[in-house]
Batch of 4 targets.
Target 1
Amino acid sequence: MLTRRGVAYAGAAGLAALALGRLFRPHTVNAAPHPYEVTHTDAEWRKLLTPEQYEILRREGTERPFTSPLLDEHRAGTFACAGCDLPLFSSKTKFESGTGWPSFWAPLPGAVDEAEDRSFGMVRTAVSCHRCGGHLGHVFPDGPKPTGLRYCMNGVALKFEPLPQGAS
């Protein structure tokens, strides 16, 4: 049954969510839409990717936190797009955010695109692969120095390529 008190509580919760959304507004988006170098039909993507990769990369899903083996990846190397192999992040920028997803303070130059995401009643910045447009995760303005950014990525959207032994 709908009561005045229930409506008042719902309104107050909505206003609080709006205020928090404005307080934690993401940084400025830096990329315009463009044609992708790697394109496939939906059927081709389904054949190329695992069902979980397809859900994340092509349908903008999110993996469950603390499930990615890449959380514990600490070797020197590069994190690349699982959809097209484009190098995205250096292991030198990876840090432990405690959020349950692999986090980085900066992508490699020209590797990612960013776009405003207004899903789930909040404003965030979505991050996608510059080469294939695959959804990777989101970036937030609460990361460490030197950028102050936290690129919170779905591990299933990435693959790790270690540096050869002896390389630095």
Target 2
Amino acid sequence: MPKRRISKKTKIRLSILGTLSLVIIITFFVNLITYTFNISKLSQEEQRLQNEFKELQAKEQNLKIEIQKLKDPEYVARYARENYLYSKDGEYIIKLDPPKNENKENNTNKGKNKDIIYIISGLVIILVIPFLKNKRKTKKTT
């Protein structure tokens, strides 16, 4: 069987369409990954806000209870002695400072950004290597 010759126009057309297809596929996967991470981040934000909302509701209930307690004069007197250092006659007040706890913030966004970069670069490599191998084979055979 004789080999079929491919014209120069057909080779140019195939290379242009192949490159365009590859760019479209890469763009699709990059957008897919970006949207997936955005959806994940938004769902985590939603969960955090729901937890914060529950905490605020509990705080609201505690404040309503505190309002009811502040209507009692004995409770108000004890509250003033504890929080504002008022004293009865003959009492001494000794103020103790609470121990300081240093809160260190962990910045996890940097780690997430690195993960995204690694995933995208891995996908690009996976998609580009077969294309390059095919080009090398066609160069060797021609």
Target 3
Amino acid sequence: MAAGLADKVEENTTCCHARQNKVWATEPEGIRWEWYRVIEDVESNAPA
């Protein structure tokens, strides 16, 4: 965040049948980007 890129970080979140870490950033033009890393597959979207 010091460089001004990331504006939201989600750690150990469950989405799309996977546990993930996510980083969100917004370009100066307003376009939102999401980068994520799948930690493991899960049976459902239920919280960990």
Target 4
Amino acid sequence: MDAAKMNTWAIPLLDIGVPAGFPSPAADYVENRINVNDFLIKHPESTFIIRCTGDSMINAFIPPQAYLIVDKSLTAKNGDIVLAVVNGEFTVKYLVKNDHKCWLRAANSKFKDLEITPEMNMSVWGVVTSIIANPNELRNVCFG
């Protein structure tokens, strides 16, 4: 899709730091509007959104049903959250690597690290740059 033809959505920007404590009348601080595309997408031609399923990344604030903004133009670095394909299956995990080995690591202790071996067919499709999630979906993590 041509980046110039993408729909844009400008919303008010409250350019203040918001403490998770005492409330403040934020309407007095409306500075301007931001284009959400410009704010979240740096490389429109190589960026896409994918919906996540499962809870393997819940402790990275990625609940089931979250939408992930993935940029294919970025080179994945150690510690990045990546969209990978392992033996034909998509997965979202942390990329962990050193000079000798590479793993995909979940952000949930219920899941084991997946060590990438030479026998596996693994490729990184892109780096997750933003997470769009309903905070109510994280409620079960915090309150059971």
